[in-house]
């Protein structure tokens, strides 16, 4: 039970900027803790989505201004870690065009102009999508998108091979019990939010696999940065799909 509790805290601390503290005795490398961390990953989206919607409701009298603030705060709540991944992946792809080692480039702390430009482009699309959903009162659909994007990462971690020690350790720690449980619980909660949750989920999974495999072919490997880019694109496309239909 303690490992599950630590996994919940680890998921919130690793995938969000919510204030979470640990004691010196907490062993976060335990397979049970890492498995519980992945189990709770989709619900990190539920938590920070609830925070964003609550913030927008407080600022709704400001119209689009309040929606933009809420959308940017959403990205701040996950620490821009997925946005940073866009920079790293784009830089690595362009570096590989020049005959450089893509994996070495993706690990560098500096970023190039193309990485920044792509990240800004994705940020604009992301903010526009979130603002659109919030202004039209599609709060539960917005939170459903955040759950699906993170659930898709759990499925990718379980299905693919990674050139990353940490992600590989996560994959090894993800038991069938945790995978099935987070899958079923996500469907239960998401279906309460929107009757189209399963359709959106299947579409989100399909997009995530296409993106991950495409990037793997371009880079020659898959790592945590590829997962971050996948999450960003899945959320952008799902927001667009909801806006269209």
Plain-language structure description:
- There is one protein chain.
- The chain has 245 residues and is mainly alpha-helical.
- Helices cover 79% and strands 0% of the residues.
- It starts with a helix and ends with a helix.
- The model has no long low-confidence stretch (mean pLDDT 92).
Briefly, what is this?
With 245 residues, this protein is an all-alpha fold. The chain is 79% helix and 0% strand.
Q: What key phrases describe this protein's structure?
A:
245 residues; mainly alpha; 0% strand; globular
Individual helix count:
11
Calculate the terminal CA-CA distance, rounded to whole Å: 42 Å
* Apparent shape: globular
Strand content: under 5%
How many strands, what sense, and barrel or not for the largest sheet? none
Q: Report the helical percentage.
A: over 70%
Mean pLDDT: 92
**C-alpha Rg, in Å?**
18 Å
Number of strands: 0
Classification by helices and strands:
mainly alpha
Topology order in helix (H) and strand (E) letters: HHHHHHHHHHH
List unreliable stretches of 5+ residues. Answer: none
Question: Which helices and strands appear, and what pairs or packs with what?
Answer:
Blueprint: H1 2-15, H2 31-59, H3 64-77, H4 81-97, H5 102-106, H6 113-135, H7 139-159, H8 165-173, H9 176-193, H10 197-219, H11 224-244
Helix pairs in contact: 1-2, 2-3, 2-7, 2-8, 2-9, 3-6, 4-6, 4-11, 6-11, 7-9, 7-10, 7-11, 10-11
